[in-house]
Amino acid sequence: MKSNDDIPKKKLKWYEKHTNIAVMVGAIILLMVSCPDDNKDSAVVSKESQPKTTSDDGYTYDANGNLIINKKPTLTKAQSDSIEEVERSSMLVRAEKERKRRNIKKIKDDCVFNTYDGSFYMLNRYVKDRMNDPDSFEHIQTRYVEYDDYIQAYVSFRGRNGFGALVKSAYTFNLYSDCRIVMVE
Question: In Å, how far are 37, 41, 154, 157 from 168, measured between CA atoms?
Fold first, then answer.
């Protein structure tokens, strides 16, 4: 039979060794927090019955000068007016962004934006109608930038010229919400 001295002891961490001390310190702190100080009145006064003062900075303080945090600061008329003005202007900005987003969406929907190859059907049709050999049209790429009331698109393509050679060309267009196309020089 082995004695207790023969069994190797597990090395304990510092907090496992001193749990009794930690519990005692915690109990002392709890007692200190829950018991009133000897210097103060031991009578319990509710927060509502304590006299409150509002200072120039708009915050409310109790009778001892402690800041009451759960209370919102009172605003002056000028401060509340400026807040309302900022809210109104931000609402206008959001409404303007929404209007632009809807306008661009309308252009893409009405002028048939192809999500497969990124082209606009109306622009491809416009280019084909003005080519020498419309059957040789091969779309390469369409890049576009969205502006307030229109989309500016850069269309690059291949096609046969008047001599029958296959050439690469590119045009820049402005595309408006009524599907009106304006070629940019």
Answer: 89, 92, 13, 6
Six token digits for residue 177: 């919400």
Alpha-carbon distance of 119 to 163, in angstroms, equals: 27
Element (H, E) at 86: helix 77-110
**CA-CA distance, 82 to 88, in Å (whole number)?**
10
Neighbours of 104 (CB within 10 A): 19
CA 3 to chain centre: 68
**pLDDT for the residue numbered 165:** 92
Contacts of the segment 108-114: beta carbons below 8 A, 24+ positions apart: 108/151, 110/177, 110/178, 110/179, 111/175, 111/179
Confidence of residue 184 (pLDDT cuts 50, 70, 90): confident
Q: Does pTM surpass 0.70?
A: no
Where b means 16+ CB within 10 Å and e means fewer, 6-33 reads eeeeeeeeeeeeeeeeeeeeeeeeeeee
Q: Where are the domains of the chain?
A: 108-184
